[in-house]
Give the backbone structure.
Amino acid sequence: MKIAITSERNSLESKMDTRFGRCAFFAIYDTETQTTDFIPNPAKDSSEGAGPKAVEFIASKGVSKVVASEFGGKAKSLLDKLQIEMLHEKDKSIAEVIQQF
Protein backbone atom coordinates (compact mmCIF):
# COMPACT_ATOMS: atom_id res chain seq x y z
CA MET A 1 0.00 0.00 0.00
CA LYS A 2 1.22 3.51 -0.79
CA ILE A 3 0.59 6.43 1.55
CA ALA A 4 1.13 10.10 0.67
CA ILE A 5 2.19 12.47 3.46
CA THR A 6 2.43 16.24 3.05
CA SER A 7 5.98 17.40 3.73
CA GLU A 8 7.78 20.75 4.10
CA ARG A 9 11.10 19.33 2.82
CA ASN A 10 12.46 16.16 1.27
CA SER A 11 13.73 14.26 4.31
CA LEU A 12 12.33 11.92 6.96
CA GLU A 13 13.09 14.55 9.62
CA SER A 14 10.92 17.11 7.82
CA LYS A 15 7.74 18.28 9.47
CA MET A 16 4.42 17.68 7.81
CA ASP A 17 3.35 20.60 5.64
CA THR A 18 0.10 22.05 6.99
CA ARG A 19 -1.19 22.65 3.46
CA PHE A 20 -2.45 19.78 1.31
CA GLY A 21 -2.85 21.27 -2.17
CA ARG A 22 0.11 23.61 -1.83
CA CYS A 23 2.48 21.44 0.21
CA ALA A 24 6.11 21.57 -0.90
CA PHE A 25 6.56 17.79 -1.23
CA PHE A 26 4.65 14.56 -0.95
CA ALA A 27 6.43 11.77 0.90
CA ILE A 28 5.19 8.58 -0.74
CA TYR A 29 5.66 5.68 1.68
CA ASP A 30 5.32 2.12 0.37
CA THR A 31 4.33 -0.24 3.20
CA GLU A 32 5.40 -3.33 1.24
CA THR A 33 8.96 -2.21 0.45
CA GLN A 34 9.21 0.17 3.43
CA THR A 35 10.70 2.84 1.18
CA THR A 36 9.91 6.55 1.03
CA ASP A 37 10.18 8.75 -2.05
CA PHE A 38 9.97 12.53 -1.79
CA ILE A 39 8.34 14.07 -4.83
CA PRO A 40 7.87 17.83 -5.37
CA ASN A 41 4.20 18.78 -5.51
CA PRO A 42 3.51 19.97 -9.07
CA ALA A 43 0.34 21.76 -7.89
CA LYS A 44 2.16 23.86 -5.28
CA ASP A 45 2.30 27.05 -7.36
CA SER A 46 -1.02 26.65 -9.22
CA SER A 47 -2.99 29.86 -9.54
CA GLU A 48 -6.18 27.93 -8.72
CA GLY A 49 -7.37 24.38 -8.14
CA ALA A 50 -4.24 23.26 -6.30
CA GLY A 51 -6.18 20.78 -4.14
CA PRO A 52 -7.79 18.79 -6.98
CA LYS A 53 -4.54 18.90 -8.97
CA ALA A 54 -2.65 17.50 -5.98
CA VAL A 55 -5.27 14.74 -5.61
CA GLU A 56 -4.90 13.78 -9.27
CA PHE A 57 -1.12 13.73 -8.84
CA ILE A 58 -1.08 11.42 -5.82
CA ALA A 59 -3.72 9.20 -7.43
CA SER A 60 -1.40 8.79 -10.42
CA LYS A 61 1.23 7.46 -7.99
CA GLY A 62 -1.08 4.66 -6.81
CA VAL A 63 -1.71 6.10 -3.34
CA SER A 64 -4.56 4.59 -1.30
CA LYS A 65 -4.21 6.83 1.81
CA VAL A 66 -3.13 10.42 2.33
CA VAL A 67 -2.03 12.06 5.58
CA ALA A 68 -2.38 15.84 6.00
CA SER A 69 -3.35 18.43 8.60
CA GLU A 70 -6.33 19.70 6.61
CA PHE A 71 -8.06 19.12 3.29
CA GLY A 72 -10.01 21.68 1.27
CA GLY A 73 -13.58 20.98 0.18
CA LYS A 74 -12.80 20.25 -3.47
CA ALA A 75 -9.88 18.00 -2.54
CA LYS A 76 -12.07 16.09 -0.04
CA SER A 77 -14.75 15.49 -2.67
CA LEU A 78 -12.26 14.18 -5.21
CA LEU A 79 -10.45 12.01 -2.65
CA ASP A 80 -13.80 10.48 -1.66
CA LYS A 81 -14.70 9.89 -5.30
CA LEU A 82 -11.34 8.17 -5.93
CA GLN A 83 -11.68 6.20 -2.67
CA ILE A 84 -8.43 7.54 -1.24
CA GLU A 85 -8.65 7.50 2.55
CA MET A 86 -7.90 10.79 4.35
CA LEU A 87 -6.04 10.70 7.67
CA HIS A 88 -5.51 13.80 9.81
CA GLU A 89 -2.27 14.46 11.70
CA LYS A 90 -0.55 17.60 12.96
CA ASP A 91 2.90 18.65 14.11
CA LYS A 92 4.66 15.37 13.33
CA SER A 93 7.74 14.55 11.34
CA ILE A 94 7.49 12.29 8.30
CA ALA A 95 9.33 9.55 10.25
CA GLU A 96 6.80 9.79 13.11
CA VAL A 97 3.88 9.40 10.70
CA ILE A 98 5.51 6.45 8.94
CA GLN A 99 5.99 4.63 12.27
CA GLN A 100 2.20 4.34 12.54
CA PHE A 101 2.15 2.05 9.52
User: Anything to note?
Assistant: Residues 50-60 form the longest helix (11 residues).
